[in-house]
Write a structure and sequence with these properties.
heterodimer; A: about 500 residues; 2 domains; five-stranded mixed beta sheet; two-stranded antiparallel sheet; B: about 300 residues; alpha/beta; seven-stranded mixed beta sheet; 9 helices; about 10% strand
Chain lengths: ~500, ~300
């Protein structure tokens, strides 16, 4: 029974993560094109170059090359191996929740909660082809392995090396978790419990040493990169200490902290906190209801399993990252850290949600309530899936093909926003960033420029600010595709 | 070995050590949040309000500027000049201007003043828009100014902000004064909070005597020498104090910004958070030391009495 349910859960989550590809026919999020180009260059040259930021965590590039080679498929299709790997992280989530509670159904509930969280982090994150996504399977695998009490150093070292070469922020999340778990185990040991705190300490030292060595190497190659700075590390340490005290002192403290962090995370994710004009649809009252359906069992699960050091460690480490991102700044810098932190925070939320299952199952009609909640979460997540599929980060096959077609025609430099810029770089098209147009200048526009606005880094600006309608109709319409339009300015 | 045993007992005990640690951490959080949050807002105010680039004084040193009024058809026009005219203008508007014998501000173009000057002088030009009082003024060369003002003029001295002098009233000065005022209130708050929290610490410390009874008795059962016991407990309490202090700083680092974000969302108060500097920990030392004394005193008393 449990194998069947687990298989079904993995199948559903895989399907969800592949929806952007299946419906839109192109990889999700602009970073995909960067890594596709990197992978292509590895295949062409047979050399892994470590020259710039996106080379320095080569896991995603290597995975693309690997799957493209062994499955004998083109690179574009091979991108979907990344969302597929992400969907397999459900197995790790299942293992973590099962280990903590000793109930298989908590594992299933945690898996479903992870995939269908009303924060919509799974589809927006898991479907993307990025360093962070490629590392998610390893991140969850390491967590599952550490808490399994069966840790062997050679296996741990392999996983650690994979993750360190995967992404810096995932490594940071694991470092914070390992340190917290070491302290928790040591305190439990002092209180008389027999545990393997020395083993966890050694694992922490191993991971930290590898991570530091790799970061030093990267800094020597490309210089400092955000958010690595002494100031940020000091700030994380203090926030960790505060978060640790609140979550360790009492169950109530931990619940209060989460009750205040979850709404903030939700508001931040939907663009309410940051001073950045992002095109987000306001949160509806129904979405708030969905959030409550998720939040109440999660807090119940936390209250029930708070005494377990694994739960507390996960709670403290992920809350630290979220609180740090919010405290760091409420502008673009903060948003970048927040989006990364949220995906690790979602793992913890899913696990504590799953841990509420034994409590619900013990009640009258518990089984039925549990199933209803799961189905409800799956249905409620349709809003998030729809937002993601229609969102500004979604690329469409037509868009891709139309820009590809331009490579043969367009010899002049065209002006375009960041979204198209990713595609242009992939096709080695010359381009400039969006600005006030000059006469006889080429402008490449895509559908989202009209629907959401022109993308500048993380900021969206209305197209009419740069190109008023009166000016646009005076432009020569050289290509008028369903997605991509190429204009040439006449009169300014 | 006895240290580990005592630490284990203290951790497992009636919660006295934990309570002490939490107490210091919470008090320090309150302390840091109350003292440092308003400063963040005031510092931000100082950042937002532009600092004046020059100051005006009635006495030297500084660049002398002479001014007077020219009456044309019963209307007074401000005329200014200086022996060091180019530097004075640069200090006033931050850039150099091309000046003739007489230059008029852009707002005076086509006015009676322009016609009058044209009838008297050969070269006159109109200045570009400067968004200052110069747009409404006539700038004259020193010799011409002497002639026009009939040697009846006033003097002021312009100084760069780095020079000492009497500050012009400005929003920046006002904000600076406000910060100084708040600094006084902060120090007052610091003293009052230290006193209040010390009293609470003392009461809690005295109350701990009964809680300690069980711990000390169980420790004495394993025949640890009293001096050793006292030393170890003191080390543990000092360690707890230090952890409590750092923990308090950590708590303030998470609670204050999150509360401020909530206040922004609910009440629309702008979110400004400046993390308290590490040195502020030092300011909480008196409080922590007092609490340590009030915690250790009953233990010592209990052991000495035995």
């Amino acid at each position: 029974m449990k194998t069947l349910v687990l298989t079904l859960t993995i199948a559903i989550t895989t399907l969800v993560l592949l929806t952007p590809w299946l419906l839109n026919g192109a990889p999700y999020i602009g970073d995909s094109w960067v890594h596709l180009k990197k992978a292509k260059s590895i295949i062409d040259s047979n050399i892994i170059s470590l020259n710039e930021y996106n080379d320095m965590w080569p896991l995603v590039n290597l995975l693309l090359v690997f799957y493209s080679d062994i499955l004998n498929i083109n690179l574009l299709t091979a991108t979907q191996s990344i969302p597929f790997l992400v969907s397999l992280s459900i197995i790790n989530i299942y293992l973590i929740a099962k280990k903590i509670s000793n109930f298989w159904n908590t594992g299933i509930a945690a898996g479903i909660a992870f995939a269908f969280t009303p924060l919509y982090t799974f589809i927006t994150f898991g479907s993307a082809v990025m360093k962070e996504t490629a590392s998610l399977y390893l991140t969850t695998a390491i967590i599952a392995y550490i808490i399994s009490n069966k840790m062997k150093y050679p296996c741990f070292i392999l996983l650690a090396l994979g993750l360190i070469l995967g992404h810096h922020f995932a490594s940071l999340a694991i470092i914070v978790l390992l340190m917290t778990l070491t302290i928790e185990s040591f305190l439990d040991y002092l209180a008389g419990e027999t545990n393997e705190w020395i083993k966890i300490l050694i694992a922490t030292i191993i991971f930290l040493s590898f991570a530091i060595c790799w970061i030093i190497y990267i800094i020597s190659k490309i210089g400092w990169f955000a958010p690595v700075s002494l100031n940020s590390l000091i700030m994380i340490s203090w926030i960790w200490l505060g978060s640790y005290l609140i979550s360790r002192i009492s169950r109530t403290g931990a619940i209060i902290l989460q009750s205040s962090l979850i709404p903030l995370a939700s508001l931040a994710w939907r663009g309410y906190l940051y001073n950045i004009p992002t095109p987000t649809i306001p949160i509806s009252i129904w979405e708030i209801r969905d959030l409550f359906v998720f939040l109440i069992p999660s807090l119940l699960g936390l209250a029930n399993y708070w005494k377990q050091k694994e739960v507390r460690s996960l709670l403290i480490s992920t809350s630290t990252l979220i609180a740090f991102s919010l405290t760091w700044s409420l502008d673009i810098e903060g948003l970048v850290i927040f989006t990364k932190s949220l995906h690790y925070y979602a793992i913890m939320l899913a696990i504590i949600f799953g841990l509420s299952t034994p409590f619900i199952l013990k009640r009258k009609f518990g089984k039925m309530i549990s199933i209803i909640i799961m189905i409800y979460l799956i249905l409620a997540s349709i809003t998030g899936i729809a937002l993601a599929l229609d969102g500004p980060g979604a690329y469409h096959q037509q868009e891709y093909l139309q820009v590809k077609g331009l490579t043969k025609i367009l010899s002049n430099q065209a002006m375009m926003d960041v979204k198209l810029g990713y595609l242009a770089e992939y096709f080695s098209l010359e381009y400039t960033s969006f600005h006030k147009p000059k006469p006889k200048e080429y402008i490449l526009l895509t559908k989202t420029d009209y629907t959401h606005g022109v993308l500048f880094g993380y900021v969206w600006v209305k197209l009419s600010i740069f190109l008023p309608y009166e000016m646009e109709i005076l432009c020569d319409r050289l290509i008028d595709g369903s997605y991509v339009k190429l204009l040439r300015t006449n009169v300014i | 070995m006895s240290f580990k045993y005592i630490l284990r007992i203290a951790l497992r005990g009636s919660g006295n050590l934990k309570r002490y640690l939490i107490m210091i951490a919470i008090f320090e959080t309150i302390f840091l949040s109350l003292i440092t949050t308003p400063i963040g807002y005031l510092n931000e105010t100082l950042q937002i309000i532009p600092k004046p680039s020059f100051w005006i004084a009635s006495n030297p040193p500084g660049i002398e500027i002479d001014y007077s009024y020219l009456r044309i058809n019963n209307k007074d026009f401000l005329i200014i000049s200086s022996q060091n005219l180019l530097d004075a203008i640069k200090l006033l508007i931050g850039k150099e201007l091309r000046l003739n014998e007489a230059s008029i501000g852009c707002q005076l173009k086509g006015s009676e003043a322009e016609e009058y000057l044209k009838s008297k002088l050969e070269s006159i030009n109109t200045l570009t828009y400067t968004n200052t009082f110069l747009d409404y003024s006539i700038i004259l060369k020193w010799s011409i100014f002497q002639e026009f003002s009939k040697s009846s003029y006033s003097k002021i001295y312009l100084r760069t902000s780095s020079q000492d002098g009497i500050a012009v009233p400005s929003a920046w000065n006002l904000a600076k004064d406000l910060v100084e005022l708040i600094m006084f209130h902060r120090n007052f708050l610091f003293i009052s909070l230290t006193m209040i929290l010390s009293i609470i610490c003392c009461i809690l410390g005295l109350r701990s005597t009964s809680d300690l009874e069980a711990i000390i008795e169980s420790l004495e059962e394993i025949h640890i020498p009293r001096s050793n016991l006292l030393l170890n407990l003191s080390i543990i309490a000092t360690g707890a104090m230090l952890i409590g202090m750092l923990g308090g700083y950590g708590l303030a680092s998470i609670i204050t910004p999150l509360t401020l974000i909530y206040l922004r969302q609910i009440l629309g108060i702008p979110y400004v958070y400046t993390a308290p500097s590490l040195l502020t920990i030092v300011s909480t030392f008196p409080l922590a030391l007092l609490s340590l004394t009030s915690y250790l005193a009953p233990i010592t008393w209990r052991l000495v009495k035995k």
